[in-house]
Amino acid sequence: MLKEKLKHLPLLPGVYLMKDKHGSVIYVGKAKQLKNRVSSYFQQNKQHSTKVLRMVHTIVDFDFVVVDTELDALLLECELIQHYHPFYNRQMNYFTNYNYLQLTDTGFILSDEPTAQSFGPFRYYKKIPTILRILEETYQMPWLKEISLLALRTQLPTIAQLSFQQKKKEIEGLLKGRNKKVLTYLKQRQEHFIELLNFERASSIQSEIELMTYFIQQIQNQKTFLQTPRLILSLPVAADQELTKYYLICYGQLVATTKIAGNTPPNFHFAVGNDTLAKKQQLTKAEVDPVQILLSYQRKLSKEQSQ
């Protein structure tokens, strides 16, 4: 059955759904060419991980959906993973774990539901505890133990001069993508340890600088994307190279698509005042991954066009 299905797979982009003996979807994947990608699972390959080998052993059937472009495949893959929660998918399967973050007078609060004072949700939920620790230590937050604060004040004495409200304002500015002062503070802490010839601690702070730089950049990129009122992406349709598919994105939301011949962008007619096109103050957890897919693809296309 599987061999017959493999023979009839097209060399086109799409999404495939692997199923077990109970008919449950255990894995969702995307492909530029469905035939090559799906067939690769059933060929001997030393590069297959233990996880893949275990999954292949349980596959008794698969379904597939052909789409126009790789971007369509990415978006559909995300939608199906969020719907089925397949056992063997990791990426985009744990969006319910994405955290909203709020800074109060007594500490950071991570929550599943947003409030008027919260930020996020943040995708990298496994890194959030480390990020919060870096912020707590660097800003010498009052809920830390006094012995820790004494050491931190030695590393960074200027922070002790800031009021709690000033510290809170700077951290909230970071979470809004407006403030990168924490990177300067971390470099000052790093210099302190270099002067003491404590290169091991200086090296660990370098890792913290890299993590915070990445975290801030992700916030800034997403913020810019969500504030862009109109953006059009274009990709060739795989099944018909005479056609181009255009995607209209408004404030991070995919609003419309159309396929036309030629390279002249279409005139998308839409009402700017429509509520569906309004700027989003805060994403839902389920919206984060689709937004990141669109953002990443937009950046990828921009890079290709500039080369």
Structural overview:
The protein is α+β, with helices and mostly antiparallel strands. The chain is built from ten helices and nine strands. 44% of the residues lie in helices and 20% in strands. A hairpin with a 2-residue loop joins strand 4 and strand 5. The longest helix has 28 residues, at 199-226.
Task: Offer a few descriptive terms.
about 300 residues, alpha+beta, 3-stranded antiparallel β-sheet, about 45% helix, globular
Question: How are the secondary structure elements laid out?
Answer:
Layout (H helix, E strand, L loop, with lengths): L1 H6 L6 E6 L5 E7 L2 H7 L9 H9 L2 E6 L3 H15 L14 E6 L2 E5 L7 E4 L5 H11 L7 H10 L8 H12 L5 H15 L3 H28 L4 E7 L2 E11 L2 E9 L23 H22 L1
Antiparallel strand pairs: 1-2, 1-3, 4-5, 4-6, 7-8, 8-9
Helix pairs in contact: 4-10, 8-9
Task: Compose a concise summary of this entry.
This protein is an alpha+beta fold and 307 residues long. It is built from 10 helices and 9 strands.
